[in-house]
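Q: My labmate handed me this sequence with no annotations at all. I'd like to see what the chain might look like in three dimensions before we decide whether it's worth expressing. Could you predict it?
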Amino acid sequence: MNRIIEDRVSIVEVVKRYVKLQSSGRRLVGLCPFHKEKTPSFSVNEEKQFYHCFGCGAHGNALTFVMNIEHLSFPEAVRKLGNEFGIRELLQERHDPSNDQAEQDHRQIAAANRAAALFFHHKLNETPVALAYLQERGISLETIRRFGIGWIGNGDELIAHLRTAAVSPKILEKSGLARLDGSGRLRSFFHDRIMIPVIDLRRQVIGFGGRIIGPGEPKYLNTAETPVFLKRASLFGANLIRDGLREHRYIILTEGYFDVMALHAHGFTTAVAALGTAIGAEHLKLLERFGVPVVMLLDGDAAGRKAMRRVLELELPEKLDLRAAFIESPDGKEDPDSLVRGPNGPSRIEQLVSRAEGITQHYLSDLAEQALRDPNLPQRDLAKEEMARLVLRYPAYRRGDHLNYIEELPRRIRTVSPDDAKKLRKETEAQMRELLKREKGRPGATRRSSPEMSTDRSVARLKPISAHAVFQDLLLLAATHPTLIPALDDPVLDRYDRADVRRALLDAYDAGEGDAVYRRIIGKVTEDEHAPGAPTPLDADAAEMRFRSLLSQIHIAAIDETLRDLAGASNPTPEEIAEIQRLRTEKKQWSDALIGVRSSTDVRRTHA
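A: Here is what I predict for the chain of 608 residues:
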């Protein structure tokens, strides 16, 4: 039961129905729903699927959260999640979850897979031809152990071994390890192959990939889909990501088992691969949990570009930073496996990863070259329309980044001149307006600049350097009063965190480190020439008031910056106008909050 909930219910989706969460990196914070507080101390870990409150100690997963916040029994909470997320298995009436047949099957299949993996690994040591093949592919004994690589011969030994281990024929079939032949006899699904276990995030063996080493087809054979193995949602190497993230703050996404193993052997310990299928939305949703950039390593030929475009057609997770890097080679045959094992391989991989750009930027570059250079004029027009459609897929506040990217193309493509880039940006903006009108059924000439686009002057703005100084003051205040640190997990603060001091404070707080660490961070902040210096000592209430005031000022400054950017468009779209109105409303809310904090501070001073 808990396995089904962990696999298919997002704790973030559950919690945000009750708590307003703000995200930054891998953490999400908000005001705890289980006790009264003014500064957020309630944290949700999307990667590990649990919540924790640093204030009252509340802790648990999606199921316990629903039980506690709705005051429901275990079966009632299970049914509620089943209804809300459309999970049939959770809607079955049951009193004892341990009697759930699907849960029993899952446990037995996982046990059978583990027994098979150990059998395969043992047989590899008895098979010189298989060991020689792996050695030829650059797979060391350490890599063999790390990934649990094995071997299967004719398959009869596997069936006999598992039957001796009391694995039932039904489970052998359900696990995908065996199937019935025409005479009703159990036969192994795999034979005469290198066997590579596929292990999930809970470190359970969910399936296998088999690689033939002699003539024959198919070259790779994967376990058929089973109750525990869904190719569309499984990644080879996923079980090693968390350990790898201690060294690397990115994930490499490749296309094959040997790509992943070769990359790991050379230190790239966050490499993963899809399993004989194209990258899908569920793969990306799984990777989003880790909160780090994901770099797709693709072939530099047309097939690699096509693979990137196919991913762009998916509904990309909102918080996923998905990038692409293309491996260029004279014959087009180099892949991550051969590249990392070749001359200066690791440094070449590092360069590819460090230079990787967002897949949207890559596709915009491809389309820009077509829009400017294709000899077929209709194809140029189609490329411009595709550019407009691509930018329109994003919310209004993010489109400016992509339009700016078009104008900066001369830095990346030598054949594109600055004049060409400026003209292409204007043509893309015009095409975007045309598409919006076409979709909304509003034909006619473009409207002139709307008064809605004028910059809001009703509230004094903070200059960028003032906003930075306010941010420094905020950091010092939180470091001096550590109970305020969780409230630094506010996405708007990213733009001012030039030295990652905010992240250092959050990490120190999460690790339970003491005042000595905070003092070192205070010292680092005060080294900045614009830093406000050591903070004036304040009691807890006054510190919280001051913190809220500073945070309100930063939000107002950030909104002003966005409004100025939006005001630069000469022909605003209806969507841009709506975004300006939303920002103005949000700015008024923060301004009212700032006034409220200052009024409260004045009252405190009067009664002091």
